[in-house]
Amino acid sequence: MTIFQLYKQIKPYVTKYRTLVIATLLLTLIGSFAAQINALILRYTVDEITNLLNVPDKLSRGWNLLVFISVVLLAKELIYTFVQFGQKFYGEKLRIYVAKDLAQTVIDKILTYQLSFFTSQDNESGKLQTRIDRGIESLTRLVQNFFIDILPLFANAIVALAFMFQANFYVGLVGLVLVPIYFVITQRQALKLGGWRRKMRSYRESKSQGIISIIESITVIKSFNRETIESNKQLELQESLTANQMQTRKTNFMYDGIKSFVEQIGVVIIIILTSYLVLSGQMTIGAIMFHILLFNNVSAPIRQLHRIYDEMNDALIYSESYFEILNANYEIERSGSYKNKSLKGYFQLKNVHFSYPNGTKALTDINLEIKPNRITALVGLSGAGKSTIINLLDKFYRPQKGSILLDGVSLDDYDTRFLRNQIGLVLQKNHIFNGTIEENIRYGKVDASFEEIEEAAKKAYIHEQIQKLPDGYQTKALNLSGGQQQRIAIARMFLKNPPIIFLDEPTASLDAIATEQIKNSLDAIKKNRTVVIISHSISQIIDADYIYALKEGRIFESGNHDEIYRLGGVYKEIFDASARSLNIEKIAKTYDD
Ligand code: ADP
């Protein structure tokens, strides 16, 4: 991204606060004139005192002079204090408001993105978070720099330079010549640092991703005693990061030294030049201090040039990825406008081919029908493509080829929000939010009454257990066991009460009793609904009205249990293996005895 592009991107966020910007700029202008007063007063004082040395009543006239300059300096300081306060306050206000807007904009935007955006490897949660945080941080720092630091400094420099030229052309020239020299040095410095900076960004992202992944897999790490390996992985990263930081510092310190040296040469030239002008009678002695102070007003902001350059570069690099996230428009979920109040829930997949964005081919030429008022089961080994089918039916992804129809209308034409309102999705591992049990169930229907929530919990066979907890429905849901959390998720779906239900191994983490109870309540709600179930549990599959057997992304067989079993293919293979793993023979013997 170039500075110009960055400016164009950030402009709308700043122009929103036009009054603040104008107020800050106005104060900046007043401030930069006030900043020159010290230099003017000093010249006046030195000249006046030099004159006084030659008159008889020097002391009494000296007092008058001192009172005068004290009043002027104090008055200036008073005005300057107010100006600086206003300038910093308005600048800061602008920064805080822009930061808020940037943060909210990116949150609103990513909520509209397709699932593929979040599952992409580039956007792992840690990386995404660092990118957003750093982006906002550096962009707001840029705004702050510009309106609080840079602008006043540069306004000062320009006004000071104008005063220098007004005093003497050559003095002004020395001040002016310094600018391009500094600029060239700073540019070289920035060029040297450019590559390291980019590397730094990726190191930082990996670092926060590393910490997150350690926290997430802590049980596995500990049980396998892999602390040292994990620690070494991080150490390697830390070492590269440190080496990079040291290189950056070294370069910076070296160039800072060179710049200091150049500046001192400037001071020396000013002293020599002004001394010559004073000695040759073209100027009064006060001019020496006057010029040195003015030169300082010019060089102070230029000294900041590399910081500005650095931060500008930071802003360019980090904001690049921030705006990339913001402008990933192609990721926006598509939505049609079709809504059907009396949805039957009849799905048809015709010649559907689908690959995930990373290129994994998950489904090949899928043709299937899912009819209302019955349970359709998807069976197949892990990785066969079952969950992918549900992802497509939920419009989380779009197939590359083929069509998906619901009640004869393409899924593309459906209003996505409407469609998802009609679907209840229960996954093997359901997401429980950080909140109470009540809040977690209420997610299914935000305006539900407490009675409705209890009713849903009863259907999910969790109500009694909740009641026994000391805090009841106000218990933190994350403290519940996996099986209990699963039933909270099922209660959430019961509360939503949708006409279409997708169950992806819903009872995988439940104990036997809970599985049986849930099975009963699912049986109860399948009436007048479309139910699709993915399951490895024979009992659930046998109960299904129609079964599709998948293997490696293709449908191999379909039919009801008896029909499909008799085909003697994939389904029979999986079914027999499940039965054997359950030790059905011995179980049967137990019952015979
Ligand atoms: P099943 O539900 O039958 O176990 P899936 O539908 O989850 O199988 O997966 C089908 C294939 O798609 C697998 O090869 C899996 O690795 C791949 N896959 C699943 N999810 C993703 C994803 N988000 N990105 C890339 N590949 C994926």
Question: How would you sum up this structure, described in words?
Answer:
The structure is a single chain. This protein is of the alpha/beta class and 593 residues long. It folds into two domains: 3-331, ABC transporter type 1, transmembrane domain (ABC transporter transmembrane region fold, Up-down Bundle); 345-422 and 528-593, P-loop containing nucleotide triphosphate hydrolases (Rossmann fold, 3-Layer(aba) Sandwich), CATH 3.40.50.300. It has helices at 3-15, 18-34, 37-52, 58-111, 115-119, 125-167, 169-216, 218-223, 227-279, 286-303, 305-326, 386-393, 416-421, 437-442, 450-459, 463-468, 482-496, 512-525, 538-543, 561-566, 570-581, 584-592, and strands at 347-355, 361-370, 374-380, 401-406, 409-410, 423-426, 500-504, 530-534, 546-551, 554-559. The strands form two sheets. A six-stranded mixed sheet has the order 6-7-8-3-9-10, sandwiched between helices. A four-stranded antiparallel sheet has the order 2-1-4-5, with helices on one face. A hairpin with a 2-residue loop joins strand 4 (401-406) and strand 5. Helix 3 runs antiparallel to helix 10, helix 4 packs antiparallel against helix 6 (125-167) and helix 7 packs antiparallel against helix 9 (227-279). The mean pLDDT is 87. Bound molecules: adenosine-5'-diphosphate. Adenosine-5'-diphosphate is lined by residues 119, 356, 358, 360, 362, 380, 382-388.
